[in-house]
Amino acid sequence: MTGSGLEGFYRAGRRVLSRCQVRVAGREPVAVQARMVAADRVRFVGTLRVAPDAGPDPDVVVERIRSADGIERITLHSAAPRLLRLPVEVSLGTDLEELGTIASGAAGGELSATVHDSGLRWSGPKGDSAVTAAPPPTDALASAGLLRWELELLPGGTRSVELRLRPDRAGPVRALGRGATSPFAPALATGDDPRVQPLLRTCVEDLQALLLRDPVHPADLQLAAGAPWRCGPAPADSLAAARMTLPLGTRLAGGTLRILARTQLTGPGLRSGMIPGPRRDAGAHLPPGCTGTEATLLFPVLLAEAWRWGLPERETRELLPAAENCLRWLRTTVGDGVYLPDPQPDGPLRCETQAHAHRAALLGADLLDTWGRSGGPELREWAEELRRAFGKDFWIEDPSGGRPAAALTRDGRPLPHLGAGAAHLLDTGLLGSGTLAPGLLDKARTEQLARLLGGPAMDSGWGLRGLGAGEAAYNPFGHRGGAVRVQETAVAVAGLAAAGHEKEASGLLGGMLAAAEAFDHRLPEMFAGEPRTDGSTPAPHPAACRPAATAAAAGVQALTALAGIRPDAPVGTVTLRPVRSAPLGEIVLTGLRLAGAPFSVRVGRLGLAMVEQAPEGLQLRV
Fold first, then answer.
1. Which pLDDT score is estimated for 180?
2. d(Cα 354, Cα 348) in Å, to the nearest integer?
3. Where are the domains of the chain?
4. Is the pTM of this model over 0.85?
């Protein structure tokens, strides 16, 4: 890491280390290889010619293994025939800047270091960071940001130095040990398409690598947003990923909900009941949105659906008050109006936010009714009012059949650009008895949206673009302005399949699988939205997390959507609505989890689904 551009180690969007350069005998090794050896580890290899009589071949190999938990191990391997005494220097630095500031070129210079313990420490108004070394360095020069050792290498021998990065006053980047019990079922996907098996395996591996343990309540787990840019929790991403991975079990959902319930705002004021979250850039057409709004609306949805998948009664009951607070915040914030602004109180009325709010109201009402709590009828009444108003205000008629507005300004002016956020209109949520909640669009407009999402402007051939090609400000590398975002692609696949638009769902799924294959089945958070052509491969995005929690979870959602699993564990039933066109041929999903027990399903080439393993007493609804 040289500190140039976006290089660095990030924690929750802040660069806690920007520079880590190794010099051996006064020279940088010649880089020969860099590759990911696991979801959370990268191996770099360089070589040096040190001995003057060694001939043309390198006689020292420098191996660097960097992990997402902030540990880097530097190992020197000697092939020299005699003892080598080598000075080894590690030059370190950081600016503690936010990713957005760095990406816009507005970052300041590096901070001054101080000697700290067996390493260096940096402090500033934006945070603190420290690197410690083992063995302790022979010299630590704060003014130069330099750690130095004198190492002896026997012929054929090795010596190692370990660096540990830790942002001060922060929990561990990755607290879950490799030997810890996984919250995910050992799911496998097999079938006619050879890509499904490595994709699901890699998605589960990525999710496991991103797990964080709550330092105060170590039994509770949640997911870091991704590496390398966001090696920390992000509430909206954690909830979305936990929801998409419910077929792998409910333990992650329960832990994520408990962790975030402890962050819920209390006391007087309009923000009471909200799950706090940072602002997020929304592209060129809209101001930044509040991820706290999305997280607050996702909380009751995840609890309601986790209950249907088999979250234990005791856990569900304990989390109900936090869900009620989220729903109370929703109704209080909407007040006498119809729409939910984002951010509050004067933000635009985003299409995506209304979809999240409508789903939260309906699933929240179902949850409240099930547990004998009050408030369900009022939420349903408001949801019905929102549906009527949305159909009138948000749908823009045009000769091609119309489209949903991306947002309404506060004076009621629709913003007509089409983006991937519209896919959330298809994600209506799971109610009891295997039924899906109604959405904000009627059947005809759902069909029109399916045509738009499956058309060439939105479907790049690799997945769903964040903004349609041809729209003003379209940029294939714009992270909200045209890049393919894997999460929205999976949401569209599942939503289109559930609504019966299998052709469009199959097209997006095929592109997603092709992209996964090009990325060695480790899906990045996003990649360029350039059109797919014969012989082309998707272009990586320079600021994408890989692995990313939502991308790995999206792979799980897209594959399990083929079986259309709709459980109702509290009443002991499951409904299957498979994709009848069987776009991948036969697919067998084994080792899923339903009501805490193994669950397996096979979808044949004719699109018929068969349960092959299920909890005792579970009944199949038709």
1. 60
2. 11
3. 9-171, 175-613
4. yes
